[in-house]
Amino acid sequence: MPAPPARPVESRRLWIAFTLASLAAVVLGAFVCTRSGIPAAVWGRNLAAWGIGALAAAALVRWAGPRTLAAILILTPIAVASTLLFPGQDGVRRWVAAGPVQINVAMLLLPAFVVGLCFADGRRVWAWGAALGVQVLLVVQPDASQAAALALAFVVAAVGGPAFRGKTAMVAAALALMVLAWMRPDPLAPVPEVEEIVALAFAASALLGGLCLLALAAVSAAPAWATLGHAEPAVRRGGRALSMLLLVWAIFPWLGAFPVPLIGVGPSPVIGAWLGVGLLCAGLKTR
User: Fold this and answer.
1) DSSP 8-state symbol, 94
2) Is residue 2 situated within a structural domain?
3) The pTM is what?
4) Which end of the chain is more exposed for a tag (fewer CB within 10 A), N or C?
5) Range of the domain at 113
6) What is the pLDDT of residues 230-270, one digit of tens each?
7) If 0-12 CB within 10 Å is exposed, 13-18 middle and 19+ buried, where does residue 74 land?
8) Angle, in degrees to the nearest 10, between helices 197-204 and 206-226
9) Is residue 1 part of a domain?
10) In the chain, how many domains are there?
11) Is the dihedral of CA 42, 114, 135, 199 positive or negative?
């Protein structure tokens, strides 16, 4: 991502849109928790994560460069693989322990990873192989929601992207791994403030539930909307791929016991979404 900055207006537009939408989602989630008797020590983690994520995203906008991109593409598979070293819950291994907090590594790193995949040029064919490696790890964990999110973002990133031998086969493999992940048993029971937070909101009032859905829709749409008219195809693909990932995050809790991003309690998707937006804003400024 070479200097100098090219389209700072679009970067500001994405930053403002995501700031407003994500803050609304986190605040709505906190309000639903208070209405449902969830202690502040639990839902307060999301508010803290929102601030930490915003600072991390700002750092990416200011300092991200080619080495940052390479580091994200290399370290994400390693970090996701590290989850297999932890015992997990009922045989499901998606987390790395950081003191009292359990970090969902995929939700923390996949947003920046899919943006980085779109920014990878034809010389970084290995990055697409790394994405398939992450898919395999998500099947092993298992995590059907993240496997689906990555697979569909992979397809969006591939359409119009750099041509290389085996690209079609890689897309087919990503989709096949998504199906395989859904065939794996997932014994975890839902936690109300994590996976069922939208249901809690609708139980309180139809208006509150509707506002939660609108906030999730706005968060998901912001990257694609902000990059829609950009001249650089890689930036447009990055916006669409990130929006696809966030949209799958928002939809799939209706299909199983999967975390609701930003509104549900869990710092990993809050910080992760910010990291994806930060890397995309860095690309908007420099491409």
Assistant:
1) -
2) no
3) 0.94
4) N
5) 8-286
6) 889 999 999 999 999 999 999 999 998 899 999 999 999 99
7) middle
8) 130
9) no
10) 1
11) positive
| CA-closest candidate to residue 149, choices 109, 190, 184, 96 | 109
What pairing do the DSSP bridges indicate for beta strands 95-98 and 101-104? antiparallel
Q: How confident is the model at residue 203 (pLDDT cuts 50, 70, 90)?
A: very high
Separation in Å, CA 287 to CA 5, 55, 261: 7, 22, 29
The count of other CB atoms within 10 Å of the CB of residue 180 is 16
Closest listed residue to residue 257, CA positions, set 197, 207, 205: 197
Residue 106 domain flag: yes
pLDDT digits (tens, 9 = 90+) for 18-47: 999 999 999 999 999 999 999 999 999 999
Alpha-carbon distance of 63 to 25, in angstroms, equals: 28
pLDDT band for 7, please (50, 70, 90 cuts): very low
Q: Which two tokens stand for residue 276?
A: 């994806």
Within-domain flag for 41: yes
DSSP state at residue 186:
-
